[in-house]
């Protein structure tokens, strides 16, 4: 999609390269014998995006519970979760779910704390799992977990109930290598095998795994990975693995979505609860291709470094959020604080400091889902529960997020109906503004009524905000000051943004803005 409102997309799954680095052309290479695609017609980016997602698919409306409060990502077992839960209650944090990715148990590797890829609860790590899940649910808090389309041999784990790798190998539903054996792929510190979702039996088998997870009280899960099908694999369908590599993320999202839909429609009690309180299962994915939004309910951006960097860190998380929104993935978010930690003194150290965590929380308080992550080396990183200061800030950001829940629900509905993202690059609404065209991570819209200018540099306490022409006046949520474009074009202003007071603006006179400001009463203002 260009600033001249020219837009096209490719169909099919052949390997392709889009080169947008040349000043006079957009160049596309396709590795195949033919090419098929569509040219889109529209007078604005929003028209083009709506037209595009009409063909490629849009996500469903999310259950209200996942967007009603913070998703607390943590690990450590039952006692640790209960201890942190008590702290969160002491700090009055609005929580919608605990996301416990280590429900399967942890293994120590060279990468850090990693999971046993065998999708069943580890009763030793989470003693009294069902009691914990039920206690949380009675307080209006859901439990979320983790899975991916890979399996590992479990001969080194003592308390395994089912050896899913061996089951899948016996059924012949794993991706195979040239010798016809399960294709064992190196993944970080261990080897894994992938389920072959070109085989219908793999779909049916994995849905039973998901059913067991939900029967254990789980309401949602991260559906990780899916992007790494080997290019020399042998598949049940016999299809070209290079094309199947691009199709696999869609298949992975589809098996999760079909299960979620079947669970909802197959249970009278579930359907009644869904109508009553916005119930329903939710999964979120990181891998994707053209039609992933037809199947995936929600995206996240994968594993950023715990850094301030533009190429991989807090800044790139905003780039991914906005470019994803322009590419037909309207419901997206990142791990608050990032994930990838490197702690190899004295050679290389990337550890999450307090300031980075606090600023990342402020960014993510204005995305569709507000979820934390401890990272791959939790002990090396600052966490939301590290101190009274971090807990206080986490509570503040969760309340900021809660304050626009009413508008978020409207925007989620709009995403499902039109494909327009919740978090938006300003280009969607101000495409002729050359200053807007040059923006990457500096600021973004939430819908049309809110403007966020995050602090993305260490040690900064002010930002430069840009207000494009034609937008009218914007009101700063903390001071009430109004800013707006001049008759000669857009307007730029330096705005103070100390920690705890992100530079957020609402459209002056907007009912959405007025309600948001009303909901913010009680939070300390400048």
Automatic annotation (TrEMBL):
Gene3D superfamilies: Glycosidases (3.20.20.80), Golgi alpha-mannosidase II (2.60.40.1180)
Entries under Pfam families matching the protein: Glyco_hydro_31_2nd (PF01055), Glyco_hydro_31_3rd (PF21365)
Matches recorded under InterPro entries: GH, Glyco_hydro_31_C, Glyco_hydro_31_TIM, Glyco_hydro_b, Sulfoquinovosidase_GH31, YihQ_TIM-like
GO molecular function: hydrolase activity, hydrolyzing O-glycosyl compounds
Keywords, comma-separated and alphabetical: Glycosidase, Hydrolase
Record has Hydrolase as a keyword: yes
Gene Ontology BP annotations: carbohydrate metabolic process
Domain Glycoside hydrolase family 31 TIM barrel: 60-391
Residues of the Glycosyl hydrolase family 31 C-terminal domain: 419-510
Keyword Hydrolase listed: yes
UniProt similarity note: Belongs to the glycosyl hydrolase 31 family.
Protein name as it appears in the record: Sulfoquinovosidase
Lineage: Eukaryota, Viridiplantae, Streptophyta, Embryophyta, Tracheophyta
């Amino acid at each position: 999609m260009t600033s001249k409102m020219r837009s096209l997309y490719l169909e099919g799954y052949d390997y392709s390269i889009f080169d947008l680095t040349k000043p006079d052309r957009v160049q596309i290479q396709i590795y195949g014998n033919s090419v098929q695609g569509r040219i889109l017609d529209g007078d604005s980016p929003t028209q083009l995006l709506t037209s595009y997602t009409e063909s490629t698919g849009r996500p469903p409306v999310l259950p209200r519970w996942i967007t009603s409060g913070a998703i607390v990502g943590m690990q450590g077992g039952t006692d640790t979760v209960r201890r942190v839960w008590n702290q969160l209650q002491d700090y009055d944090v609005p929580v919608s779910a605990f996301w416990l990715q280590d429900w399967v148990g942890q293994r120590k590797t060279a990468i850090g704390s990693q999971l046993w890829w065998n999708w069943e609860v580890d009763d030793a790590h989470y003693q009294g799992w069902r009691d914990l899940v039920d206690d949380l649910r009675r307080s209006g808090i859901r439990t979320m977990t983790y899975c991916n389309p890979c399996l590992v041999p479990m001969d080194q784990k003592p308390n395994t109930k089912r050896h899913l790798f061996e089951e899948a190998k016996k059924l012949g539903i794993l991706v195979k290598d040239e010798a016809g054996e399960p294709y064992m792929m190196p993944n970080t510190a261990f080897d894994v095998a992938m389920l072959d979702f070109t085989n219908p039996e793999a779909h049916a088998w994995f849905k039973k795994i998901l059913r067991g997870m939900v029967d254990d009280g789980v309401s949602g899960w991260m559906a990780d990975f899916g992007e790494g099908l080997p290019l020399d694999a042998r598949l049940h369908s016999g299809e070209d693995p290079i094309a199947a590599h691009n199709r696999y993320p869609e298949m992975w999202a589809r098996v999760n979505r079909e299960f979620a839909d079947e669970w909802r429609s197959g249970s009278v009690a579930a359907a009644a609860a869904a109508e009553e309180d916005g119930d329903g299962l939710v999964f979120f994915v990181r891998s994707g291709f053209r039609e992933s939004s037809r199947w995936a309910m929600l995206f996240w951006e994968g594993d950023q470094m715990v850094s301030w960097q533009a190429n991989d860190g807090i800044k790139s998380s905003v780039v991914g959020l906005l470019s994803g929104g322009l590419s037909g993935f309207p419901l997206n978010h990142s791990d608050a604080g990032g994930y990838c930690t490197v702690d190899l003194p004295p050679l290389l150290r990337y550890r999450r400091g307090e300031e980075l965590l606090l600023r990342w929380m402020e960014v993510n308080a204005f995305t569709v889902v507000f979820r934390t992550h401890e990272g791959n080396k939790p002990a090396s990183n600052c966490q939301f529960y590290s101190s009274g200061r971090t807990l206080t800030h986490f509570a503040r950001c969760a309340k900021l997020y809660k304050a626009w829940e009413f508008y978020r629900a409207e925007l989620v509905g709009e995403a499902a109906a039109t494909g327009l993202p919740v978090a938006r690059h300003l280009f969607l609404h101000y495409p002729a503004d050359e200053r807007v065209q040059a923006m990457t991570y500096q600021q973004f819209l939430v819908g049309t009524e809110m403007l966020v200018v995050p602090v993305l540099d260490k040690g900064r306490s002010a930002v430069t905000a840009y207000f494009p022409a034609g937008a009218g006046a914007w009101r700063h949520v903390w001071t009430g000051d109004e800013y707006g474009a001049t008759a000669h074009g857009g307007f730029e202003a330096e705005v103070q943004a100390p920690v705890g007071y992100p530079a957020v603006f609402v459209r002056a006179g907007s009912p959405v803005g007025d309600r948001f400001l009303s909901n913010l009463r009680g939070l300390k203002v400048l």
